[in-house]
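Can anyone check this?
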Amino acid sequence: MNLRTLLCVGCSLLLVGVKAAEHREFLPGAPLWVEQAVAVRQEANPPEQEKADGALARDIEADQKLGAEVYKEIAEQVTFDETEEIGGRVSAIGAKLALIANDTHALALWGDKRFVKLDYKFFVIKDDEVNAFSVPGGYIYIYTGLLDFCESDDELAGVIGHEIAHASFRHVAEMQKRRSTIDLATLPLLLVAILTNSPDAGNAMIGMQALSLALSSGWSVEAETSADYGGLQYIRKSDYNPTGLLTFMERLGARDRLSPVQNLGILRTHPPSSERIQFLRTEMNNLDIPIQRSKVTKSFRASIESTDVGSLRLMFGEIPIHDFNGSDAIPRADAAVEALNQFFDKEPYLMDFEMTSTGVVRGLNRRLFEVRMEDLEGQNRTLNETIEEVRNNMKRALFDFNFKIGQSRTPR
């Protein structure tokens, strides 16, 4: 096994923690590991408050010291984007969520259950990799490749909230606690080597055997689920739509399935498993958070584009559906966008779509839009040919949609 492979294995373990859960009724539909934690729920009497506060202060100080050391190492190896457009955007979103995190004692399903308040700092690394990570003490790093992948501030907020939760729940500290073979003195080098894929990472081999062993126990998924739920608790108190976290994970999972041999980037450290996605959906439903993908991502949204010949083209994501022409093309196109978004936000299957021989497109027994003769203006085709094309386009859009959200939905 080469060094890079070992580093990839080790990186997944950075996101681990301690089993913990709260009331079972608060977590219906939770994964098995959560149910097991609930069954043996610990109600240990807290120590004297002054001693508890002192211990927490020392732990936070240790986290901040480690985070500062890691920052120095990272700063020597990467280039930060500090422009207002890029760095300022991340810092602005991060600052809003940091205020919420420091005002919210979030439930930690996995990790440190104490209320950890941190001075969060946000950095953007110039790199095309779709990745993000946090290190102890509230240091959050976002890659420009991830910013390009995000299709809205809501999706970006989902990622940042997730990373804040990792820091707040002190997952790296829990990793070190559980795997004592990892020397604190070498942990900064280990973290940097793993997170940046440093070519000078020979010393990072220390502790790799322990990291690999811990990874095999499944802790990565558990800690990731914990960070998902922590991030959800923060985001739902913000102005950002929590659905962004879900769509980011769904699109990331689809990207992974389409390109299994690519440089995995964030998929290496944040595996978007079907268990995690389903758990997030369950908790969103429990919290009465509507899942409206059209409001947070372009991939699951209908829109209108102008064509070179003056038509108004109805799109779903990047898939063309139909071109509207005629004197009433604008209101017809606008109505079609609204109807199509409502249709797809209900998570339709292919069977939920039909198209009549006269050109009426229907979804879930509701009229979505209609193909008319005036739409053929400037086109060398018949009405029947256009109807057949629209039928195929809708099928393609539905297939693409269901493929991308397939890990998260429950079959009817």
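Reply from J.R.: I decoded it. The CA atoms of residues 39 and 333 lie 54 Å apart.
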